[in-house]
Amino acid sequence: MDTDGRALSIYRAARTIKRKDNSLYNALRSIYEDSIFVGEISQLWPELPLLANLRCGLWYSRGFAATCYFKSTDGHTNNCSFSTARLNLHVAALAGQKGGCMIVDSTRKGKRFPDSMSKTIPIWTCVLNRAIRNYVCRVQREAEEKGETADVECTASLDWDCSLHLPLWVPGTEKAAIEERIDEWVEQLEASGADIASLASCLKKPLRPLWVSQKTVIWLNEVPDHDSWDFTAVMLVSASAQNGVFQQHRTTSEFSWNYIPGAGDDEESWARGLSPGLFWNHAYDIIGSGPEMCNQKVAEIVEKDRVYRAQRGQDAPQICLKNPKASGDTDRCSSCTSIDSPGGDSMAVFRIGFTNVAVGSIQHAASVPDVDCILNCDEAHVHGRVANTEDYLHLPMVSSKWDRFSLSSNLPAAVNFAKAHLNKGRSLLVCCQNGEDISVCVCLAIVTSLFDEEGYFDDGRLFAQKGITKWEMRRRLVFLCKFAVTARPSRGNLKQVYGFLSQGRAASSDFD
């Protein structure tokens, strides 16, 4: 019987059990336990920087050196791809500087590793390795033709490892199918305008993925030094244990709880406004509160943080939670939570080369130095700014998930505002809620419309002459992401930008 005295159907009973198993406390406790494993692995190679693969990976450690964005959809079986919209070149550069890196992620599907680690990142390392070898060989060949010495600080040559390294559980047929497309993806990377020369100068050894999970056996007295390897290690750490009945129900001296593999995934459905940074600031209090008081404790922490932000004029949306008994899709306000950086603050502001344009989150907009004017694309106002004055324009925009024409209808005003101020030599900040999607897309429209291929302001002359093509759009996006390393523009928003730039022509390009 349920609380209303009605007989429970099998479906309702199953939903009730699932809801209890996937409770907030179970999710956070699972994350906390998995983070212990991540910490142990990071201590084996403390010199290697720890990176979180957004967004799930961000939950599994108190502090990350940086973040990255490799999508599992790019590694789905028989549908693998290489995305020039998500090059993550800063990861390769950081690995080259430090001699390697660790990337943390997890999965809920009962597998040891998510597809992002099984295939997406291995494909990425192989494509970058081949592009670097092609670049070095081309520079050496051109130097030999001129009778000069090649000015390339890289050992990449014919013995540079360009093999595709996949884990053993990937079938041979699928590996063969992927290898057939590698050269095609290398050509796409080279055509995108990515700065291969910089990668070639900082990578002394080819990139190679290594896989580490909770089932990996590592002899602590025989841990190899990463400098002894003949490759630059990209260690892929899957935080979660595989789902199994024997380990599903766990009991401590205080509480009984159910383990959830990949608990950090899909945070909008369970986190109740809690962000990774906020969780780690109060981890001991939350875990110590137990299953019965966890929801109340999290609600108090989230509300205190909201009030704290509001008192300082920062973006502080009211968190709206979906009624557990309600059916249908969640309301838009139920997912109005921000992705926090490892330190708990929102992502920083990035200046785009010599363009006099910067992009970032609204939380930093009021305090960014050397900014003359602000273009605010978030639904909230920037604290201390009067709406739509000469140096401040507020154009509320939402993701294409909620409005398919939100960006395209506001881009004309955004570009005109930018043009008026850039013509006067003034600096511009484009901001949105997290500085990763909408503001990046608006900045992309501005840079493409008003700047030449080298990133210098030309008042739109080059754009008027050449217009826009699919590949030119990708090249500009690569240029932008070179500086805004946390950029994660969505496909729907990119299509709106392309539709605006192509003056109404069909925006049929796929930006995956």
TrEMBL record:
Q: Name one GO biological process term.
A: charged-tRNA amino acid modification
Instruction: Please state every residue range assigned to the domain named Rit1 DUSP-like.
Output: 392-501
- Kindly list the GO CC terms recorded for this protein: cytoplasm
Q: What is this protein called?
A: Initiator tRNA phosphoribosyl transferase family protein
User: From the UniProt record, which GO molecular function terms apply?
Assistant: tRNA adenosine(64)-2'-O-ribosylphosphate transferase activity
Q: Rit1 N-terminal domain: from which residue to which, for each copy?
A: 17-303
Give the species this sequence originates from: Linum tenue
Checking InterPro entries in the record gives: Prot-tyrosine_phosphatase-like, Rit1, Rit1_DUSP-like, Rit1_N
Tell me the Pfam families matching this sequence.
Init_tRNA_PT, Rit1_C
